[in-house]
Write a structure and sequence with these properties.
The chain is mainly α. The protein has 13 helices and no strands.
Length: 283
């Protein structure tokens, strides 16, 4: 019986591997064809948005009767649109990806990623109930398929941020702390900065500035160790510590952090895009 069960599982795994390999090949061919369609001798260059729109418009026809590949690409393009702040298109493509997965009656990590993008886009649009539904469904899928991995921690941080935005501070802290526990267990120090920053933000909103300062200093220490003192993320961490000190009425300590943040930003992203935080702290 044990041998029979093992054989069934092995056959299923082999079948899934073949399907995933076929899907990956279909996606690769689609993308190769998309980029290959551009004329290298053309005088006008294609913008990223034009390329994305072209890809989104071709998925149904180019990958007809290949729903897994379609779902994979819709999820990927949705994420890119969301990263560009094109929330309406991100939601539209994410919904297509999820609908295809539902039609196949199978849940994949790509489905969870599409739901994550959908949740972020709904959140950016102020549709908080729909955002929460998307995050929670994505979390349930990811937990079933992968257990408490880094992807689960990312979803928990998004939920934590949403709760914080809605002033559900206890729920937000619980989500961020659960994410942090996963990241610490997996020894993912750099990823843990998202949880620490989320917790710091909520404690700051609750006027618990000492706790916020402690967390933001932990983030600063990680960024200095990983990126050094000349990186935009390090600049942002210096700025956050500065604001915590300002909120604690410790302006003399806050000002050097603001000045350091401004110095890094001028060196890394130029003076015209650097913030005016120093004025806020010294006021």
């Amino acid at each position: 019986v044990a041998a029979g069960i093992g054989m069934v599982r092995a056959n299923r795994a082999e079948g899934r591997a073949r399907e995933e390999a076929a899907t990956a090949q279909q996606v690769s061919q689609f993308l190769t064809g998309l980029f290959g369609a551009s004329d290298p001798n053309a005088r006008t260059s294609t913008t990223l948005r034009e390329l994305l729109d072209r890809a989104a418009g071709r998925i149904d026809t180019s990958l007809k009767d290949q729903p897994r590949a379609q779902a994979n690409l819709y999820s990927t393009l949705s994420h890119v649109y969301g990263s560009l702040g094109v929330n309406g298109e991100a939601v539209k493509l994410a919904e297509k990806s999820v609908a295809l997965a539902d039609s196949l009656k199978e849940e994949t990590l790509e489905t969870a990623e599409a739901l994550l993008t959908m949740g972020r886009s709904f959140q950016n649009q102020g549709q908080f109930d729909r955002s929460r539904e998307s995050y929670e469904r994505a979390l349930a899928i990811r937990m079933r398929l992968a257990g408490e991995d880094i992807g689960v921690a990312t979803l928990l941080n998004n939920l934590g941020g949403l709760h914080g935005q809605l002033e559900r501070y206890d729920e937000g802290i619980a989500a961020h702390e659960r994410a942090l526990a996963i990241q610490e267990r997996l020894k993912s120090e750099l990823m843990s900065t998202a949880s620490l920053t989320g917790l710091a933000t909520i404690h700051s909103h609750r006027h618990e500035y000492e706790k916020s300062l402690e967390l933001d200093r932990r983030v600063l220490a990680v960024y200095q160790r990983v990126y050094g003192d000349q990186h935009p993320l390090t600049a942002g961490a210096f700025e956050n510590v500065g604001w915590d000190l300002k909120d604690l009425k410790r302006a003399a300590e806050a000002l050097p952090h603001a000045e350091k943040s401004l110095e890094i930003r001028k060196a890394t992203i130029g003076p015209t895009r650097s913030g005016d935080m120093c004025g806020g702290i010294s006021s």
